[in-house]
Amino acid sequence: xxxxxxxxxxxxxxxxxxxxxxxxxxxxxxxAAVEIAANHHGELLAPLxxxxxxxxxxxxxxxxxALVHIPRRAVVGAR
Length: 79
What we know:
By secondary structure, the chain is an alpha+beta fold. Helices cover 20% and strands 35% of the residues. The protein has a four-stranded mixed β-sheet, with helices on one face.
């Protein structure tokens, strides 16, 4: 299953696409991007999503099976 995750709760806009194996719970990040630009989240979120989807090779799919928001504190390695 593919998951699109994004965070706009800080000055950074963070977007990632991950592959999740529901059986094992394993997660593999396919692509991610971070842009620091306080007060410009509205302008940056959609283009970053497009960029990350292209980098993950899922451009052209009709949709992702899951769309979730993961709090920054839950992301491994987040500062």
